[in-house]
Design goal:
Shape: globular
Largest sheet: 8 strands, parallel, barrel
Structural class: alpha/beta
Number of helices: 8
Oligomer: single chain
Radius of gyration: 16 Å
CATH class: Alpha Beta
CATH architecture: Alpha-Beta Barrel
CATH topology: TIM Barrel
Strand order of the largest sheet: 1-2-3-4-5-6-7-8
Distance between the termini: 11 Å
Helix content: 25-40%
Number of strands: 10
Length: 222
């Protein structure tokens, strides 16, 4: 089982690594579900830890629909992360105005990312048809991970869909489901058992008063 932990700065990244995280997701602003961090912050975090760091590429929190200006910003950030940091991967997702997979932008990102791994994030949970969106993503071997709650507000509520997605992934060596949203020390094992996921993504579930809580990490390392 792999545990990806959300962090927002260098201090949190160092602590999360010390506490046993397998991988980090670096974001700015929990309030909007994670936005792009400052590019120099990405550089500093990647230099401060040895475990993989995936960086959020999301220019605003209004929706997962992006205009031409947003697209230029997304491509600029990916170019910087690829060429000027030790970033392991990027976390990205985009939909059309009809809430289907934005294939055009996805293919631009794939063409730009180079060595970077690609996680398609919870934009999939805002899609008109989450399962169909996932089936489309399976056509792209360059998409390494899909972060999802199974189309529901939390992973526990979306457990049935998550299980379906894991089963769809099995024939594809490149496709990995990363379960996220509402995962806590109290429900993690239930979600894992019900879905068969091999990776979980945790934010507030390992925090107390908005700070990483070492005691909560001990549960995930058992």
């Amino acid at each position: 089982m792999k545990f990806e932990i959300i962090v927002t700065n260098v201090e949190e990244a160092i602590l999360a690594e010390q506490y046993g995280a397998d991988r980090l997701e670096l974001i700015h602003d929990f309030k909007f579900g994670g936005l792009s961090p400052l590019l120099n912050m990405s550089q500093e975090v990647c230099a401060a830890v040895k475990i993989p760091v995936c960086v959020m590429v999301r220019p605003h929190g209004k929706s997962f629909i992006y205009d031409q200006h947003d697209t230029q910003q997304i491509i600029h950030e990916i170019n910087y992360l690829r060429d000027h940091t030790d970033t392991y991967g990027i976390v990205f997702g985009a939909l059309t105005e009809t809430h289907t997979l934005n294939i055009r932008l996805l293919e631009q990102v794939i063409a730009t990312k180079g060595r970077l791994n690609l996680t398609f994030h919870r934009a999939i949970d805002a899609a008109y048809d989450t399962l169909s969106c996932y089936q489309e993503l399976l056509n792209y071997k360059e998409v390494d991970v899909v972060l999802t709650s199974g189309g529901k507000p939390t992973a526990l509520e979306g457990a049935k869909m998550l299980k379906q997605m894991v089963e769809l992934s099995n024939p594809f060596s490149h496709a990995k489901i990363l379960a996220g949203s509402g995962i806590t020390p109290e429900n993690a094992q239930q979600i894992i058992a019900q879905t068969g996921v091999k990776q979980i993504h945790i934010g507030s579930g390992v925090r107390t008063n908005n700070a990483l809580d070492h005691a909560k990490f001990s549960f995930f390392r058992r």
